[in-house]
Amino acid sequence: MPSWYMLEVYDRVVGSRSHLTLAMLTLLVLGAYAVMEVLDWAAGSLLHQAGVDFEKRLAPRTFEACFTAGWRRLPVGGLQPLQDLRTLRDVFAGPAVRSVLEMPVSLVFLALVFAIHPALGWLTLVAAIVQAFVAWMNERDTQEPLAAAGRAAREAQVHADASLRNAQVIEAMGMLPDVRRRWLERQGEFLRLQATASDRSGTWQALGKLVQTVVASALLGLGAWLLLREMLVDDGALMIVASILGGRVLAPIVQLVAQWRAVVGAREAWQRLHQLLETLPARPPAMPLPAPTGRFAAENLVVPAPGSTAPILKGVSFGLQPGEVLAVVGPSASGKTTLARALVGLWPSAGGKARLDGADVYAWDKAELGPHVGYLPQGVELLDGTIADNIARFGAPDPARVEAAARQVGLHEFVMALPQGYDTEIGTEGARLSGGERQRLALARALYGAPAFVVLDEPNASLDEAGDAALAAAIAAAKARGTTFVVITHRTSVLAVADRLLVLNDGQVQGFGPRDEVLAKLARAAQAAREQQAAPRRLPATAVRPAAEGAP
């Protein structure tokens, strides 16, 4: 339209000196501009909405997959998939997608150039092929350094996140210079690779723009040559139109080359997201099951760590009735924490099953099972929010149930002494609480809502004597209501409320049964070991030889 307006002004207005003609031409071109901007706004709005809809559809699935990969310790997890989802959302309304959508219009422009004159059309087509070759070369030269730069950037980010999580240890032991040096090495590698990719991409972008500029002038020159040989109709206006249309044919490819880094980033994001969702497919909907009563059975459990084939638990079996308390003891690295994770359905078993009321805990939909299960991991994990939010598991807090859970573990008085009570923010990972307070808060969360089955992994690791007493009282009270407990502990204070005792060693059951019977067997075994150690060692007869005569 700008070129048409210019030609018409020179042809009709300057020669006729007509104000009316100028006014009408101006109205026409302004109307065309308005239509163009409305269409551009509509296209941008539609593409933006498409990106938002794309994210809305995939966000729940992606978050669930990231969460599952996190607790299963899979390498495809972390926060990267959520960032990839945002990258794909943003690319919808980006220049790269707009360029691709304009390519069909470019074919229309190419056909119009051919209609003006075949020679002009062939020149435009050759230029388009050259531009496509430039785009391919840009892809070939930048793919490897861009991919490597992305990996280096992710490694640097992971290192920085880990450093922030361990900031106290790093500062206390003077590790900051070395930690910073490693981060700078990774960041420097990212910047170097990105600079290499940018240099190569910039070269091909410049070549693409050169081709576009040369073609526009070449079309004008060829049109003039055709006009001089009387091979082009009209008075030269079509020559200018052909030059303009030829540039429009090449514009989308030039724009795509210029946005190639975004294209590569979106492609890698899509590949990573696809890998995650393929590795962790959505679980099919399962038939709802009745609320469990707390009857539990471990049937010959064989459990390796995720991603490994070496079993940690080797044929563990036991059974519990509703309201029974099982204490699990054993030396370090005997498989106690692995057992806790298997009992609540976090880690899958390679053999055997963990069954609650006869149903496989691992296969049971956790959204349905979760309200009936309590779990306290060895490393206390709290979320940024209020005390009430954490106790209520971030559902809608029921004040009465929140307070009941806090009272059970002796936390209520502490909470009420805070200025905001149960609405007090605890900070990231409970940073504003002491170790014992975090432990009690996590224990209250495990007992919230009177679950039927509770697994506690070292629940008194950070508790003092008062905390130990509160823990034992909380277990006894919940046991009286019919809650089944599995308590993993190194401390004997919990044994007083235990009905049964399980002794683990090297992933195998060395003793299981009523608490007093197992303790008696352990005591007899320990006494026998002490007696054997104290007994004088006897040498075999062949080792006793008479001394030779004259020997000292």
Automatic annotation (TrEMBL):
It is found in: Cell membrane. Residues 529-541 have a biased composition (Low complexity). Keywords: ATP-binding, Cell membrane, Membrane, Nucleotide-binding, Transmembrane, Transmembrane helix. The keyword Metal-binding does not apply. The chain crosses the membrane at residues 20-39, 107-136, 210-228. It comes from the Bacteria. The keyword Transmembrane helix applies. This is Type I secretion system permease/ATPase. It comes from Ramlibacter pallidus.
